Amino acid sequence: MNPVRRTALVVGLVLAVLVMVFATREAVRDRMTTHLVGAVAPPVAGITLDGALWDIDDQRGRWVLVNFFSTTCVPCIEEHPQLVAFAEVHDGSDPAVPEVRVVSVAFDDRPSAISRFFAEHGGGWPVLPADTGRIAVDWGVVAVPESYLVTPSGHVAAKVVGGVVREDLEGLLDRGLAVVAGDRTGS
Length: 187
Description:
The protein contains five helices and seven strands, in the order αβββαβαβαββα.
């Protein structure tokens, strides 16, 4: 076979493989976004940056947003103001707005860097800074940021892969509230 034909054949095969990868990419992303949804939330427990014990089991009866992040992750930095805005609206101070507890789980990060990050960027929720590898494995975290909305009954209602946007979180919460309300009325 002449070298030009061989090169053309190799380039054609590479392009065919790339087309297959990109064509199936949505299917892979769909599987990632549905992992754990509907299941009981795995454990999230540990000592927070401020030295308190935090356990997701103690949050039963409340909505919880579990956020996996790293201070060196650009999408994590970009999403942080969205998390702060969401947490401020859902802090429980307005009885007309559902309360949502936010907890962040640091992924492969130093406590000093995490403390500095929150001091600079805001966010007054619990942060688990150490020994979080098992938590990330239990939740199936592939890459940060990843966030999970957990219902008051302790089930995962939604998973967000990549940075969150406050409006999207509001939409997920609204859908979750509708499902929970439907469960109560038996519809």
